[in-house]
Input
Amino acid sequence: MQYLEFEKPLAEIEGKAEELRAMARANPETNVEKEAAALDKKAADMLGTLYKSLSPWQKCQVARHPDRPHCKDYIEALLTDWTPLAGDRNFADDQAVMGGIGRLDDRPVVVIGQEKGHDTQSRIERNFGMARPEGYRKAIRLMEMADRFSMPVVTLVDTPGAYPGKGAEERGQSEAIARSTEMCLKIGVPLVSVIIGEGGSGGAVAFATANRVAMLEHSVYSVISPEGCASILWKDAEKMREAAEALRLTADDLKQLGVIDRIVKEPKGGAQRDRTATIEAVGREVRDMVEKLSGLSRDEIVRERRKKFLNMGSKGLAA
Output
């Protein structure tokens, strides 16, 4: 288990409990189970207290936890007959974006998501989940295919944002993001999205302009990262805590604002503490969202999705 900055007191208690059990394994005559159990209870209580009142910045840290399940984990656990599809038929295949066809139960679906990687090598290969233009053009190609064959689209969002490199800009990064967002609005099949970690900037919106948007309890979704916001507004990236507060990037805030539709509860201590339970919870939400949209006609699906985004923020403007 990798501990976050605010979890250090918890790490000490759980570490002491593990030391006691290691001592008992080395010397079977040593009876320390009672003391270890007491430490376990203390750690569980502390874990509940910590995660009951996380600040927005702490939620950012949890959303970025390397042990959270990633796009690849959800695909492997929830889908059968998975067939990955690669390339944008124009420039290259972007490893930051996964996409393909699979079965969710018995229903064929197209799944598209950002993958960050799980170790140093895979993170570099996946560009830390930051897509280049060819990644968004791959997503466009797959959405067009899903529309042609009447398959629902599921997107899994986990990116700090689109890759801001020179080559990406030269190949039309902003245009690719805009086209992907436009395709999300155009397709006549159900489109549901889940923010499973970070939802950063246009890189996330290009996947999450959906009929229904769900968000894991400790995920974040915002127009810019707290560090980027702090650098622009205060010329000081260390002001990220203040920026996180101002951005209103938590699931509770975004549900209240009408930006997302559902919040998926995470296990106590975050998704990284029980990856299986988290994946199962997301699977239930995705099935339910797709099922509730499947009875609509193509025109109703497009109209409902466009209306959702056109009306976003209207209550605040009226007030």
In short: The first helix runs from residue 8 to 26. Residues 74 and 279 are 6 Å apart (CA to CA). The chain has a mean pLDDT of 92.
